[in-house]
Amino acid sequence: MELETKRLILRKPKKGDWKDIVEGAGEFDVAKMTASISHPYKKKDAEDFIKKTIKKWNQKVITDYSFVIELKSEKKVIGGIGLHRINKFFGKAETGSWINKKYWRRGYITEAKIAINDFAFNKLKLRRLNSFVFKDNKASNATQMKMGYKLEGMQRKAAKSKASGRIQDLNMFGLLKEDWKKIRPALIRGSQL
Fold it and tell me: What is the pLDDT of residue 188?
């Protein structure tokens, strides 16, 4: 399965993606803003991620879609985005993303999140998305708000960055399907889709 936007392809990772993943996730400024990416991030880490992700995609009931973000113009993986802990009974999932530092501030995450949100609400028929963001990650917090997510609270000292070892406060964001329908047209007008 692939999701396509004007500039991006969101797809299942392939074995050959490991170099691009190491380049992007291996950057300390990227890794330190996530709970799950270690530093240094090496070939074996990327290969393990790819293997586990492919296994999850091949399960009968998929509860985790981890997509790589491929930039069409360069045929290069520049990040990752996913829907995790999908619970169809409750109608919800968690989102998360990262982008290679060389590609920051170009609207790629916004473009990818529009595609992921559409997939979650229209294809998977979910009613709610959650996003947990380190409180001091200003760019990611701003992106959540821009995408229509509402700040619903903060968990004190709830996470730890594998890269930095730092204990982090987590901002808890939520997006309802009906709120997404209201904000989506304005985002589409302002994006590359």
Answer: 84
